[in-house]
Automatic annotation (TrEMBL):
The protein's enzyme class: isomerase
Gene from which the chain derives: trpF
Lineage summary: Bacteria, Pseudomonadati, Pseudomonadota, Alphaproteobacteria, Sphingomonadales
Domain N-(5'phosphoribosyl) anthranilate isomerase (PRAI), residue spans: 7-208
Catalytic activity: N-(5-phospho-beta-D-ribosyl)anthranilate = 1-(2-carboxyphenylamino)-1-deoxy-D-ribulose 5-phosphate
GO MF annotation list: phosphoribosylanthranilate isomerase activity
Protein name stated in the entry: N-(5'-phosphoribosyl)anthranilate isomerase
Organism annotation: Sphingomonas changbaiensis NBRC 104936
Family (UniProt): Belongs to the TrpF family.
EC annotation from Swiss-Prot or TrEMBL: 5.3.1.24
Keyword Oxidoreductase in record: no
Gene Ontology terms describing biological process: L-tryptophan biosynthetic process
InterPro entries: Aldolase_TIM (IPR013785), PRAI_dom (IPR001240), RibuloseP-bd_barrel (IPR011060), TrpF_fam (IPR044643)
């Protein structure tokens, strides 16, 4: 078992999915959000999900979804966990109860005070994903933005957590060293264009994680 787990998020093709699995990713992420360039149809998600071995977790990434979207995404993606963005506490709790799946919550970070949001998710979330805060009119993730990793120094994490936001093959080793992250989550940092994953960048990213 690698010291640091890794999720390659926003996968949409068989070759890039296979690269993530072959490289040792612990989790793969499927995005169900039409405004995102990484959005998957349910048909496409089903085809990709069928390629994922049992040892790799399938995580569905959704933005304040309704029940119909949650149900369809879980079925199509054969999801093992649901990662929620911009979703309130009561709604997330309802999704947890409805889906019976582990819930991951994205916490948008720009300042140290933003980290305190993590406390509110005890009893609902299994994992916090610390991501960079994006502008109000921008997508909630996958923008290649990073926050100051030193904000995490000395922070008492209330739950298991993953580091996200602006990670790449070139900086993930440093990020792990600075933050002590035991899981990292990448999307745009392994792309050649928005929504277009790069097999070589995925391999390099996972190699860098393995060396950390």
């Amino acid at each position: 078992m690698p010291r640091v787990a890794s999720k390659i998020c926003g996968l949409s093709t068989a070759d890039t999915l296979d690269a993530a699995i072959a490289g040792g990713a612990s989790h793969v992420g499927f995005v169900f959000f039409p405004q995102s360039p990484r959005h998957l149809t349910f048909e496409k998600a089903a085809g990709l999900a069928a390629r994922v071995p049992e040892r790799v977790g399938r995580v569905g990434v959704l933005v304040d979804p309704d029940d119909a979207l949650i149900d369809a995404a879980i079925a199509a993606g054969r999801l093992d966990a649901v990662q929620l963005h911009k979703t309130g506490r009561e709604r997330a709790a309802a999704i947890a109860g409805r889906s019976k799946l582990p819930i991951w919550i994205a916490v948008a970070v720009r300042t140290r005070a933003d980290l305190d949001q993590a406390q509110a998710w005890r009893g609902i979330a299994e994992r916090i994903v610390y991501d960079a805060k994006t502008p109000e009119d921008a997508l909630p993730g996958g923008m290649g933005l990073r926050f100051d990793w030193k904000l995490l120094d000395g922070f008492a994490h209330p739950l298991p957590w993953a580091l996200s936001g602006g990670l790449s093959p070139d900086n993930v080793g440093e990020a792990i060293g600075v933050t002590g992250a035991r899981m990292v989550d990448v999307s745009s940092g392994v792309e050649s264009a928005p929504g277009v994953k790069d097999v070589d960048k995925i391999a390099r990213f996972l190699q860098a994680v393995a060396r950390s």
